[in-house]
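Exam prep: given the inputs below (a chain plus inosine-5'-diphosphate), describe the expected output before reading on.
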Amino acid sequence: MVTANQHRAVLWDMDGVIVDSADYHMRSWQETFRQTGINFTADSFKQIFGMRNDEIIRSVLGKDFTQEKFEAIVRAKEVTFRRLIKDNVKAFPGVLRLLADIDEAGFLQALVSSTPMENITLITETLGIKHYFQHILSGYDVTEGKPSPQGYLLAAQRLGVSPENCVVIEDAIVGVKAAKNGGMKCIAVTNTHPTASLVEADLVVSSLELVNTKVVEQLLSLGKVSTERSSNRMERSLVLIKPDAMQRNLAGAIIQRFEGRGLKIVGMKLLHMDKALAKRHYAVHEGKPFFDSLVDYITSSPIVAIVFEGENAIDLIRKTMGATDPAKTEKGTIRADFGLDIQNNAVHGSDSPENAVKEIALFFKKNEIFKS
Ligand code: IDP
Ligand code: MG
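Solution:
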């Protein structure tokens, strides 16, 4: 049976996403360069991290090396790498479960790595994950490295899936760029680089333990929402980090969810709402049975008020928050992950362009909002 998900795919990078290999790459470069009489420190490795082999060798040896010397060094490095990692292959947390869940949900999967096939075979066979991939592409199958989208586009083509139906999982800045250059959705995981350098991704997470098939589906359907609209509106919306979240030190984690979706902070403050402000902010709920309790709750401790700006910000923020009742909302949303109950639901977001304008004006003066 052909399911809807067979027209959708998840494309995986390998080093830094599936396997924790940075240390072994560093040690194998070190060993290889030592044999050529060059001292290669951990500091030098930081500078070259994410570069292609030819760029690394050029940065260490200078421009003067022959093609034969280049190939010999790369071969030696990769042989050393496989020897060092062979008995130490370790998947990042959440990877094995996510591969199985995505497979179970009927998505196609491909591995798109810039390393040689021998490395890919060693890693995927050791972890027992080779069968999850309907296609595997090595660095030698493409003529252009990342940030060119060539590898990801070729993998999508081989799977028969169009780029807008692909989600790429990456850890490298050039890898995220490659996915976006190819018109694909991208989840970036901060295994190698900090969040701030990965904001081009549609979602940035600290671990793949936080990702599930619902998140992948949401990312793909967000794409549909924006293409259905004739143009993407730049919007501003008010977000409040509510008392229950502040008391549990969740402000940073919540802001990260929004920033990870590309929303920009253009206004932000810590304030303790008084009853008058609470009643104006929640005026539409006056007379409802939960109104008094809601006013008491929202004024019970300081909160963070934020103005976010971005394309379709209002809709995007509501989707990222999830439905009002944490028990009933979709997995992977802020309220599902952090909300306690229907009142203590961690976060507020404006529900329409009209209300966004009104609410922002309640909390911010004009000169407290900055151009992004
Ligand atoms: P929203 O925050 O998802 O827009 P609204 O219906 O506008 O939801 O309600 C405003 C806030 O009032 C909710 O976020 C929640 O904190 C609280 N609330 C809504 N419904 C109930 C309820 O039935 N019992 C208690 N509190 C509620
Ligand atoms: Mg509301």
